[in-house]
Sequence to fold (193 residues):
Amino acid sequence: MKEKEVLFLLTDNWADWEACHAMAEISFTDEYVTKTIGINKQPKASIGGIRAEIDYAIAEYQNLDNLAMLVLVGSFSWRKNRYDEIAGLVKKASEAGIPVAAICGATVFLARHGFLNSVKHTSNGKERLQDEEAYTGLAHFVSAQAISDGGFITANETAALEFTREILRTLETDTDEEINQWYERHKHGLAGE
Fold:
């Protein structure tokens, strides 16, 4: 029976393509189950029009004992909203040693709240981060598709596969060799084999 949860935090206009590979691959494991969490339990529509049910509202998710990872999915809403309640959840998870993954606009959110100040990280370009109020981590910015450091995984908007690879590695869903084979197959396809 699957006991550990990987929570995908969804906001309005979430980027479905940034989460789909990770959601599917984690669901195939024997150890983890994917669940959704949001500010409230209202269904969230993706940019592509997919309506996702929300399993948990942040206010009701108090016990982190079964949480294996918190994944912040990209969205148009990250730049427009402060989301202090989400920052509180990220802080609780991080302090409990639970990895936090963020892609695209969610990396800007992490910068805004000071979570990236002392870890290597990436985003959609350093210019997107440098004006965020609590961000002082420019020296730790890495121009990369995705990077994992200090309990945080970050990825830019074009890195859904690299993001998933870092998530799978962190969760140890398979051997590095198997995870790399999965990545190469999805990145470069089967044509010519």
Q: What stands out?
A: The helical segments are 16-27, 84-95, 105-112, 160-171, 176-188. The chain has a mean pLDDT of 95.
